[in-house]
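Many introductory courses stop at the sequence. We go one step further.
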Amino acid sequence: MIFPAACARLQNHFAPLGFEGVLSSPTSMTARVYDPQSGENLVVITCIPCGTTLSEDDVMIIAHAIEIELEVLEFRAQRTTDSNAG
């Protein structure tokens, strides 16, 4: 699928959060997941390998990579909360 269609798929995947994907170069993209209410960035990942066309597997790999980053940030936030409480 072409890049705009892949971004639309990723927008649907991350809804109700916002998603924005931009081709940084012909071979990489920058992905941003954000809170649509506040505009706050939840995660920004640069230099994700991709091109102007992506397979369904490519889109799912990108989605999974972003999900892992979101989980890491959630884990770090929880650790900070736990260490401040104790």
